[in-house]
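Researcher: If convenient, please comment on what follows.
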Amino acid sequence: MQKIDEQPIEQKKMCCVEEEDSTHMPDDLQKQLMNRMNRIEGQVKGVKRMIGKNEYCDDILTQMSAVQFALHSVSRLLLESHINTCVIDKLEKKDPEIISEFMTTISKIMK
């Protein structure tokens, strides 16, 4: 099973770029997230094959843990980017909704 490698997160603004009442994710971030999600998809398919082959439960659980770690890694990458761009930008613009929105997001992530 392929493990998602931890790559350093660039500190440049790369999450949300506002464009006429919507946001756009820059191509570099989108590509990085899509690459990671494609690898995770491969890991999930591998776990499914392991289950189909009735492989040792401990090995399956280990691979499932790797999938969960990889998903958390993608979430952290997106969250960090979101904080450094969208959230900071809205705080600077004194958007009163951003704190509530952000706390709702954090609550969902921490379930």
